[in-house]
């Protein structure tokens, strides 16, 4: 057993000793069986939340109405969730009610895919009610029970299926594919933020072409913001998806570049995808640099505007898109050699120029922008006296 399970064993054993059952469940069990690194260890238990809280000194009610209590142990938090069933799903996305139950099997039955419905006992043995081990061996993503019903209950599971295909290099079982193909439109009932998360994870997987092709073939793409009319461009992307795309900024920079979006179009598109403002800004800037590379117009000003953090991302995406003559290390080195990295580093300021006799107003702002450009591109040295002189000359011309 991996370290993470070993250190969590005392928690399971404490629950066991009190007469309840507890198991490791979810992604950590799946990933361990696949020999992959694990992130967080989830525990499922027959003990009700109040019963869990009585057994441990330090707990946090992270989602007590759904049965989740976090147990704090030596600085680590363990999410412990009471076995539950879900019912309702009137809105295709969340159950109307959850009911705590004492049966592990009932709990595993509500999970999305067989490979995610395995439980691991503290002694290392596996509980497998739905042939998840078989599907792990044959590399299959298969809905637990009836695929149509499961996607009808919660449409996000369709995005999760294609995401896991990308992450694990698994195929999706035919009946499950059919369920996705039939229920795609239900994706429109799901909060875009949640689709966004799965979409990014899909392209961050090590086999992104796999999930992405399924995303297109099943028609899921049609129910995502602004993708409906973009099949040719999206299809053309699959040949470029040879490995994990990288971070969230890289993912969206690739998509925006591929869709030919620029400037405000990027803002609109990413707003439709409910992206955070800082992400939108980064993607707009990185996409600008990719376009400059593609147009062979990469200069110091572009590097200055892109900034050190985004230069490697833009370079990587430009390379994915076919550029051959760019190297992130070289470009970062070139960036570091720029005389200034931001306007604040200019040797003159609005104040100092006014003190030198330039009137406040829009002209002053434009002058500062001009000086910023000339210093960043090396046309002028970053020297207060020389810049003030240049400013006075410009102001009088
Ligand atoms: P990851 O490695 O990305 O965390 P994971 O399988 O652990 O993958 P989580 O979202 O952390 O995914 O969910 C933990 C477990 O909860 C899943 O393995 C699955 O058993 C169950 N689960 C999560 N989301 C759903 C869902 N939408 N429908 C049914 N079961 C789900
Ligand atoms: Mg998880």
UniProtKB/TrEMBL annotation:
GO biological processes: RNA repair; tRNA 3'-terminal CCA addition
Pfam families the record matches: PolyA_pol (PF01743), PolyA_pol_RNAbd (PF12627), tRNA_NucTran2_2 (PF13735)
EC number: 2.7.7.72
Domain spans labelled tRNA nucleotidyltransferase/poly(A) polymerase RNA and SrmB- binding: 169-228
Chain residues that bind CTP: 27, 30, 111, 154, 157, 160, 163
Catalytically driven reaction(s): a tRNA precursor + 2 CTP + ATP = a tRNA with a 3' CCA end + 3 diphosphate; a tRNA with a 3' CCA end + 2 CTP + ATP = a tRNA with a 3' CCACCA end + 3 diphosphate
Residue ranges of the TM segments: none
Keywords carried by this UniProt record: ATP-binding, Magnesium, Metal-binding, Nucleotide-binding, Nucleotidyltransferase, RNA repair, RNA-binding, Transferase, tRNA processing
Name under which the protein is recorded: CCA-adding enzyme
Native source species: Secundilactobacillus paracollinoides
């Amino acid at each position: 057993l991996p370290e993470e399970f070993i250190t969590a064993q005392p928690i399971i054993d404490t629950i066991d000793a009190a007469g309840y059952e507890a198991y490791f469940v979810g992604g950590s069990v799946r990933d361990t069986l696949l020999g992959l690194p694990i992130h967080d260890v989830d525990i499922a238990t027959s003990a009700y939340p109040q019963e869990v809280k009585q057994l441990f000194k330090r707990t946090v009610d992270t989602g007590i109405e759904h049965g989740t209590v976090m147990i704090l142990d030596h600085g680590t938090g363990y999410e412990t969730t009471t076995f539950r069933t879900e019912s309702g799903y009137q809105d295709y996305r969340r159950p109307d009610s959850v009911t705590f139950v004492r049966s592990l099997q009932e709990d595993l039955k509500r999970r999305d895919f067989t490979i995610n419905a395995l439980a691991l006992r503290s002694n290392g043995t596996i509980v497998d009610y739905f042939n998840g081990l078989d599907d792990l061996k044959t590399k299959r993503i298969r809905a637990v029970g009836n695929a149509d019903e499961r996607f009808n209950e919660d449409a996000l599971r369709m995005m999760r299926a294609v995401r896991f295909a990308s992450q694990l290099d698994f195929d999706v079982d035919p009946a499950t594919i059919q369920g996705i193909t039939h229920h795609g439109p239900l994706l429109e009932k799901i909060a875009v933020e949640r689709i966004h998360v799965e979409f990014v994870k899909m392209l961050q997987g090590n086999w992104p072409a796999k999930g992405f092709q399924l995303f297109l073939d099943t028609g899921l793409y049609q129910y995502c913001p602004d993708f409906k009319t973009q099949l040719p461009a999206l299809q053309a992307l699959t040949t470029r998806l040879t490995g994990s795309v990288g971070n969230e900024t890289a993912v969206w920079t690739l998509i925006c570049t591929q869709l030919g979006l620029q400037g405000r179009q990027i803002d609109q598109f990413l707003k439709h995808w409910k992206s955070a403002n800082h992400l939108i800004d980064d993607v707009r800037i990185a996409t600008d640099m990719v376009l400059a590379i593609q147009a062979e117009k990469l200069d110091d000003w572009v590097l200055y505007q892109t900034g050190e953090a985004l230069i490697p991302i833009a370079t990587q995406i430009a390379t994915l898109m076919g550029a051959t003559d760019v190297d992130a290390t070289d470009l970062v080195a070139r960036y570091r050699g720029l005389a200034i990295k931001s306007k604040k580093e200019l040797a003159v300021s609005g104040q100092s120029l006014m003190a030198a006799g330039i009137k406040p107003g829009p002209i002053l702002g434009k002058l500062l922008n001009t000086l910023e450009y000339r210093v960043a591109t090396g046309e002028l040295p970053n020297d207060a006296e020389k810049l003030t002189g240049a400013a006075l000359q410009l102001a009088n011309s």
